[in-house]
Amino acid sequence: MGIIVQKFGGTSVGSVERIMNVANRVSQEVLAGNQVVVVVSAMGKTTDELVRLAGEISSNPSKREMDMLLTTGEQVTIALLSLAIKEKGYDAISYTGWQAGIQTEAIHSNARITNIETTKLKASLDEGKIVVVAGFQGATVDGEITTLGRGGSDTTAVAIAAALQADKCDIYTDVTGVFTTDPRYLNTARKLHSVSYDEMLELANLGAGVLHPRAVEFAKNYSMPLEVRSSMENERGTIIEEEVSMEKNLVVRGIAFEDQVTRVTVCGLPNGLRTLSTIFTTLASNGLNVDIIIQGTTDQDTTNISFSVKTADLNDTVRVLEENQDALKFDRIEKEDGLAKVSIVGSGMISNPGVAAEMFKVLADHDIHVKMVSTSEIKVSTVVEKGSMVKAVEALHDAFQLSVVENNEVTV
Amino acid sequence: MGIIVQKFGGTSVGSVERIMNVANRVSQEVLAGNQVVVVVSAMGKTTDELVRLAGEISSNPSKREMDMLLTTGEQVTIALLSLAIKEKGYDAISYTGWQAGIQTEAIHSNARITNIETTKLKASLDEGKIVVVAGFQGATVDGEITTLGRGGSDTTAVAIAAALQADKCDIYTDVTGVFTTDPRYLNTARKLHSVSYDEMLELANLGAGVLHPRAVEFAKNYSMPLEVRSSMENERGTIIEEEVSMEKNLVVRGIAFEDQVTRVTVCGLPNGLRTLSTIFTTLASNGLNVDIIIQGTTDQDTTNISFSVKTADLNDTVRVLEENQDALKFDRIEKEDGLAKVSIVGSGMISNPGVAAEMFKVLADHDIHVKMVSTSEIKVSTVVEKGSMVKAVEALHDAFQLSVVENNEVTV
């Protein structure tokens, strides 16, 4: 008998019928002899609806009051799911974030979990109850209700699993697992049986945000095995864990990609020690995230810095830079829209220095011009024209043989 | 500068527009130099909708989980109202029941308030904030969320007013005050400027449950003045307080009435010491409330006991009695349906022994047959045929001159 934490997202609990379905899933784990904690999100579009209501009242609502408002969403789900589980003849008890002992920083809308006081959770499990916990929310030690920001329910599930030293944390979602690339774009995309935490972090944008990076980080720190699987279909998903013995011979594990990428180049910056830090501190303090950064020296006194930003952030980025032109001392800004980022990911790359070169060769063979490059130990990212994105993904998926099932991997 | 507690019911906060209207009301009290605590219910039909959802899952839902579910309703309202108040340029902070320090018994769905820990409320008021508290809910010392049952938000408001030693507690509702009788039945019904707590308790069913008896009891115990007034119209309401100096010369203050009354007579009971207690303990332990009770001795050995029950409870009442016929040792049950109760209420009756006689005379003059009578210090109740109910109310309202405005009362 072990402890299993299960997490169901908003779509999986989007109706009474689906909540009954979740109650079934939960019961199965109990029948298998496990103690179960279930973490759930708000039902379907509940959060959007609450945000809309608040928007009718205020264009710039207080974050504290938004936390008070939005946390009701998960509280409704936990009560209904507990009723559904009891209706099936199992004992269940629901806890809000603060009741479940989830303590956070005193920050609204994006707090981090600082501690989980597990006394209540453990006592309820020991009484034979299925414990249903509201995801996405916690409270400060002073009893202020907080939320965890994007991916919050995933983080709640992993944090509880870690605190309870659970055997496993299952993330139920609307996809069946993590794929070698997005199956909506490439029909040879293959579901992975397992990936490492680091690979998952780099693949995070595959499969429509299937698992939030914060939750993966958390799981990695506590070596908590995760399984991403479908709440609708009864098939094995993708396991995320430290040792990926079965597929370790595979250098590249997946191809991640995204369009809506823009390149901004700030020209004629002073070639000084603090230029890089000044420019990106300015952007960060205005809430603007940049991705790939390239610095190229043109002459001794001045330098150009290029970086990629999401297309939606382009106007704000240019505005912030222009407002700070006096302090940053640049000549002009150049921008190029209509770009995309294509990345290969795999922890085997570390010991395979030729992988990046192979990638560039494949792209060149397909007449795809690479505009920017960025490399990490387990990822090589390239910025290409948006029109070449899918062609690049197909070529790389094929070249790195990602649609081939390994010998020692079981097909499902 | 004083402390004012305001309570707004579900209809008054039923839409974003109405919430903005409530924010206006609240702001006016602050402009007048007062510290304000606002207690609100769930928006409009929110509670009904949540009950419906739970009903789709379970026909007999756990009371604990229903409390978890329903308390989200007020939490949505407090967040939205706080946003609306802030939008008007005033500072506001919302608190759930547990955050506001409302401690209750460890009973779900119908808990009593045991204590209010006011540290947070006072600190927020002293910081110049308008405090918005979720009505109807509290928590046990162990952090279990509870609800206060029917009239819960009224009780929350009065309890907070008492704990903060507020100057006043205003109950905003969809009627303009307490009337001499139900204005929907009698167009000469007149709004009372003030009534005593006891009179309010006896008149509780006038004006469609305008104020819950529990809240009146609470206010009486703490001598907290209440004002029942309209959230829509800007006119003076009815003040409920101990001293009703302005109208003390009026013996009868109001006429209460209700239909859906049934008389049950249990015939041939043993004429023993414990007969009364046995029969009504049996009914009470089955959750059945009786109203007027009359015992008439027929001979030395047996007795008949008549009582009135709500028509909706008639079948259950008869069933419970029949199931316990062996223990209760009665011969048979007689029942009479289609009855109504008409009562005159007024604290001046205590010193006016002729009032009951006057009532019976008025009814007899109008050919209204009285089937049962019950008297208290400030109320005389009669059970009559349903068809005579309105005629009885009209006759009594006229005879006791309730539509006449007293000399020293200001018309509004």
UniProtKB/TrEMBL annotation, chains A, B:
Keywords: Amino-acid biosynthesis, ATP-binding, Diaminopimelate biosynthesis, Kinase, Lysine biosynthesis, Nucleotide-binding, Repeat, Transferase. ATP binds at K7, F8, G9, G10, T173, D174, R184. InterPro entries: AceGlu_kinase-like_sf, ACT-like_dom_sf, ACT_Aspartokinase, ACT_dom, AKii-LysC-BS, Asp/Glu/Uridylate_kinase, Asp_kin_monofn, Asp_kinase. One of its GO terms (cellular component) is cytosol. Its EC number is 2.7.2.4. One of its GO terms (molecular function) is ATP binding. GO terms for biological process: diaminopimelate biosynthetic process; homoserine biosynthetic process; lysine biosynthetic process via diaminopimelate; threonine biosynthetic process. Residues 264-347 form the ACT domain. It catalyses: L-aspartate + ATP = 4-phospho-L-aspartate + ADP. Pathway: Amino-acid biosynthesis; L-methionine biosynthesis via de novo pathway; L-homoserine from L-aspartate: step 1/3; Amino-acid biosynthesis; L-lysine biosynthesis via DAP pathway; (S)-tetrahydrodipicolinate from L-aspartate: step 1/4; Amino-acid biosynthesis; L-threonine biosynthesis; L-threonine from L-aspartate: step 1/5. Substrate binds at T47, E74. Transmembrane segments: none annotated. Signal peptide: none annotated. Belongs to the aspartokinase family. Tetramer consisting of 2 isoforms Alpha (catalytic and regulation) and of a homodimer of 2 isoforms Beta (regulation). Catalyzes the phosphorylation of the beta-carboxyl group of aspartic acid with ATP to yield 4-phospho-L-aspartate, which is involved in the branched biosynthetic pathway leading to the biosynthesis of amino acids threonine, isoleucine and methionine. This is Aspartokinase. It comes from Litchfieldia salsa.
